[in-house]
Design goal:
Layout (H helix, E strand, L loop, with lengths): L3 E6 L3 H16 L3 E2 L8 E6 L4 H17 L4 E6 H5 L1 H5 L6 E2 L5 H8 L26 E5 L1 E2 L10 H5 L3 E2 L2 H12 L4 E5 L16 H11 L4 E4 L9 H9 L7 E3 L7 H6 L6 H14 L4 E8 L6 H13 L4 E6 L17 H25 L4 E6 L4 E4 L4 E5 L7 E8 L4 H4 L10 E5 L2
Parallel strand pairs: 1-2, 1-3, 3-4, 4-5, 6-9, 9-10, 11-12, 12-13, 16-18
Antiparallel strand pairs: 7-8, 14-15, 14-17, 15-16, 17-18
Helix pairs in contact: 1-5, 7-8, 12-13
């Protein structure tokens, strides 16, 4: 019987990369990839454990798939399955569970009784990802795991200690991916710690320098990175790369209150974060700047929220990701007292999101009349280096980089920007000759 697999990914870019590795492994073993569960014989659900909502969403999808497609083999993998494998295994709808993201283990679980299960170690599909099927931009996971101990985070428990991939391996993978993608996103669980575990003293800035030198014509973009872990050599690369290291940073804040940062077991103070962000923004012009913020963390007072609000208003953010605190079983924060009422956390979340929308709209309007380097994703649109969605006038080949002049902003941008402040409607752009 032909094995056809449908994949669904919850959560971050690292998860999306992992799913692509699973897909490549299974295709190398003879399986096909299905665009819909209706035409598949198996479903691989790559789960996330950042919030309790992510766990609930996975369970809802499992039940929905089983109800609509009773013959579908459902395999649950990823971060949530690493922490709650027994819970998933006892669900009658689930046929297999993999504790983590190992593509070989996933292949063995998808078709344990078929020829696809032959070979229980790399390489069949190979350790390097060759293409990313999800779009014209590709993900490249440079490390996994995290050595920090944030009190609210379950992902580090699921993923383990920080482990970096060697620079030579990443350069080889980037060359393969460059054949299909004009932009590669460097992702991981804690990329600011890239290289600390490698014997040769590698660093994120050293990796970026090698990629820019050895894989020309591709734009590289950093995934989420801690502001206090961005060193000066990396800032210099932003300044000197002519846009090929995308001028975009997503720097998690979590809280603007030192008291709450301590309860979160964050390693930086409000002022250390503030000072570094302002230093970087002063050197990297036309910078797309985003942040994650948790509101309603246990013990958060109105004064704490006001400190966060003031910092958000001061810093040059162009979008925000704001989340009410979610209790994660097994984390230190789960045992903290002084829980913030759900309604109050929702109000604080809405307050910060409105600021994010306003700042994003103002930043986008200020870009009109300026130039941008766009990674073209469709025949008419793409993404600028500073993380603005644009609609390109005239023909543009997906998978290419084009320089454009931004010529207009939709009048209802603020309403379209939604909760994050990032433009949901495209900025208008005209390709330069």
């Amino acid at each position: 019987m032909t094995i056809s697999v449908w994949y669904h990914t919850f959560g971050c870019k690292a998860n999306q990369y992992d799913t692509e590795r699973m897909r490549q492994e299974l295709e190398s073993r003879g399986a096909s990839t299905s665009d819909a569960p209706e035409s598949a014989t198996a479903a691989v659900l790559n789960t996330c454990t950042v919030t309790d909502q992510a766990d609930l969403s996975a369970r809802r999808l499992i039940r929905k798939l089983s109800r609509r497609h009773p013959d579908l083999r459902i395999v649950v993998v990823g971060c949530s399955s690493a922490l709650k494998s027994d819970e998933y295994a006892t669900m009658p709808e689930v046929d297999g569970v993999v504790e983590g993201q190992d593509p070989v283990a996933v292949a063995l679980e998808v078709a344990p009784e078929s020829a696809l299960a032959e070979g229980d170690h790399e390489p069949i599909g190979g350790a390097l990802l060759r293409t990313n099927r999800r779009g014209s931009r590709g993900w490249m996971k440079i490390q996994d795991g995290c050595d920090r101990r944030c009190s609210f985070c379950a992902t580090r428990i699921a993923r383990g200690a920080s482990r970096s991939r060697p620079i030579a391996e990443l350069v080889a993978e980037a060359r393969l991916l460059a054949g299909s993608h004009s932009e590669l996103v460097l992702t991981g669980i804690h990329i600011g710690h890239y290289g600390l575990d490698l014997a040769n003293g590698s660093s994120l800035s050293a990796l970026c320098r090698r990629l820019l030198d050895d894989v020309p014509g591709v734009r590289f973009r950093l995934g989420s990175i801690e502001a206090t872990e961005i060193d000066d050599p990396l800032v210099e690369l932003f300044e000197a790369s002519d846009g090929l290291l995308a001028p975009h940073l997503h720097v998690p804040l979590q809280s603007g209150s030192d008291r709450i940062l301590q309860r979160m077991r964050r390693w930086h103070t409000r002022e250390q974060y503030r000072r570094r962000v302002l230093e970087i923004a002063g050197r990297v012009h036309t910078l797309g700047l985003g942040a994650d913020i948790i509101v309603g963390f246990p013990g958060e007072t109105e004064a704490d929220h006001s400190l966060t609000r003031a910092l958000v208003e001061e810093l040059p953010y162009t979008y925000l990701h704001v989340f009410p605190y979610s209790v994660r079983e097994g984390t230190a924060a789960a045992d903290l007292a002084d829980r913030v009422p759900v309604q109050l956390a929702a109000e604080r979340s809405r307050d910060l999101r409105e600021i994010g929308v306003s700042k994003g709209a103002a930043y986008t309007a200020g870009r009109v009349g300026t130039e941008a380097l766009v990674a073209v994703e469709t025949e008419t649109g793409g993404l600028t280096g500073d993380y603005l969605r644009v609609s390109v006038a005239g023909p543009a080949a997906p998978g290419t980089l084009v320089r454009v002049r931004l010529s207009g902003v939709p009048s209802d941008l603020r309403a379209a920007a939604g909760a994050t402040g990032r433009s949901a409607l495209p900025v208008l752009a005209a390709a330069l000759d």
